[in-house]
Amino acid sequence: MLTQLSTVKSRLSILDTDTTNDALLTASIQAVSSRFDRECSRTLARTENANYEFDPEQTELCPPCYPIESVTRFEFKTSESAGWQEITPAPDYLIRKSCVISLVVPFRIPPAALRIQYFGGYVLPGTTPDAGQTPLPPDLEQAAVEQVAYWFQNREKLGAIRYWPKGGVYEQFADLDLLPSVRAVLYQYRRWQF
């Protein structure tokens, strides 16, 4: 989860001892975290032993979970019965800008599936990053907090276009799937697809 329950509760001025909405807020944090991954076309949370399949002709690999910490192995598969087999020795490669793996030469393996296994992504709040790991940027965490808080505060009005209580003030609701400030933050972390 891109933020902790205690952080969201603090933002909403809910006491830590009040557990009435904890399950609802936790589910909302999980939903927002998944939505952020889809919006950014990548996996933001740190993942160990992630697999990424690629074409044998490719020399520029763009795995969906970055920043990339390390590549642990290269594998190939020529048939389902043979399964995945490690390529040894591993080919020469270079990790560029923590998000692209450049191979010196393409693989020339006839009809085969290729994949890498790697460690990458951001260390989530509540966990201390080790050497070589990258913590989740504060603006991403704050965007998640604000989106969850916005949803929680307006959960009774979801789907409503306008609200005009008898003798009350007329309210027209904007179609705000994601808050504009949240959308602006996510734009900076989006993986561009070509």
Question: How is this structure best summarized?
Answer:
By secondary structure, the protein is of the alpha+beta class.
Q: How confident is the prediction overall: mean pLDDT? A: 91
Overall strand count: 11
The major β-sheet equals: 4 strands, antiparallel
- How large is the share of residues in beta strands? 15-25%
Q: What structural class is derived from the secondary structure elements?
A: alpha+beta
Main sheet: strand order: 1-7-3-4
Helix content: 25-40%
- Measure the end-to-end span: 28 Å
**H/E order of the elements?**
HHEEEEEEEEEHEEH
Described by the principal axes of the CA atoms, the overall outline is elongated
The stretches of 5 or more residues where confidence is low (pLDDT under 50) are none
**Total tally of structural domains:** 2
* Radius of gyration, whole Å: 22 Å
Please work out how many helical segments DSSP would assign.
Answer: 4
